[in-house]
Amino acid sequence: MKIKDNTKHILIKFLDYLKEGIIVVDGDKNIEFINSYASSFFKENPVGKHFTEVVKDSYLYSLISYEDKKDRKVEVEIEDKKYLVNIYYIENKKIIHLQDITPFEVYKQAKKDFVSNVSHELKTPISVLKSVMETLETEQDPHMIKKFIEMAQKRINQMDNLVQDLLILAKLESKEEKIQKQAVKIHQLIDSIFEDLRHLTEEKNVKLYNETPDNYTVYVDEQKFIIALKNLVENAIKYNKTEGLVKVYSYQQDNSDIIVVEDTGIGIPKESIPLIFERFYRVDKSRSRNIGGTGLGLSIVKHIIEAHKGKVWVESQYGTGSKFYIKLPVEKI
Ligand SMILES: Nc1ncnc2c1ncn2[C@@H]1O[C@H](COP(=O)(O)OP(=O)(O)OP(=O)(O)O)[C@@H](O)[C@H]1O
Ligand SMILES: [Mg+2]
């Protein structure tokens, strides 16, 4: 291949733009060239020095010292990152090309975790349904039959909720779903959410208070915003105490609309606070599953609010109650 001298200079500059590491080692194992990206693998400027003096990481050390003159591809971990490493031998030089594949690995792991979580969530209701069916085949007592049917219904609802939540998440994640904002009166919206969820308040006699101002308007995608607020109010009821209170209020602050869903419930332990917006996370798995939760609600809330360029967070006192905040940039359309 023929190449002009000034083109060589441009190619070398180009190698510095790459978000991949290139290291050239000569036959005596002296470092002959590195691009900018690869400099983080060395203690100091390594060019002209023997690799044993300058290489920081033991994996890279062995990659350079290993000598079988065969081109190869390996995966290695260097300082918490995973790299795909291509090794080429050209003339008497060894060329090491490192690509950071950490994001891909994280994605692969998330996908694996997701499938195993969904399967796990389906396993319990399916096995309960199986044994209910078996029992119903022989059960004669009408009272027991009614009890078993109720048990089956509860599990079917649980699976239905999971599938609904998964569909909402899938829709939110597909980029086709656009946020369509319109002016929405928050007071009326909260009233209708309270009506939908009123039946959940009966068991513990939880009281709901809509303290949002009458004409308070926010600019949101109404359908999606209802899903988000409904999840927060539902949690505030579900994780409340007997005779507990749920209050929703709103105000403006620093050019943002703040909406707060406050409860006097069981609260969230400090160590769980950073985790509760993660998919499938529940503070107390067995209790939550009994209540029917799958741990997807808050990750849906986060998705929806972030799609509105907003933020959602929680302040909570374990044993006393929680306040979930939604912050939306004020905008007019
Ligand atoms: N208001 C609250 N008070 C106390 N704990 C809460 C509250 N809201 C959420 N949590 C905790 O955070 C966890 C995650 O909530 P999330 O809404 O994501 O899932 P879930 O309610 O268990 O299931 P679902 O998918 O049906 O909403 C809950 O399991 C619960 O432990
Ligand atoms: Mg929930």
Provide an overview of this structure.
With 333 residues, the protein is of the alpha+beta class. The protein folds into 3 domains: 5-100, 2-Layer Sandwich (Beta-Lactamase); 108-177, Helix Hairpins; 179-333, Heat Shock Protein 90. It is 44% helix and 24% strand. The strands form 3 sheets. A 5-stranded antiparallel beta sheet has the order 2-1-5-4-3, sandwiched between helices. Strands 7-9-10-12-11 form a 5-stranded mixed beta sheet. β4 (81-90) and β5 (93-100) form a beta hairpin. The longest helix is centred in the middle third of the chain and has 37 residues, at 102-138. 25% of the residues are buried. Bound molecules: adenosine-5'-triphosphate and magnesium ion. Magnesium ion (MG) is lined by residues 231, 234-235, 293, 297.
Question: Could you write a compact summary of the structure shown?
Answer:
This protein is of the alpha+beta class and 333 residues long. The chain is built from 9 helices and 12 strands. The strands form 3 sheets. Strands 2-1-5-4-3 form a 5-stranded antiparallel beta sheet, sandwiched between helices. Strands 7-9-10-12-11 form a 5-stranded mixed beta sheet.
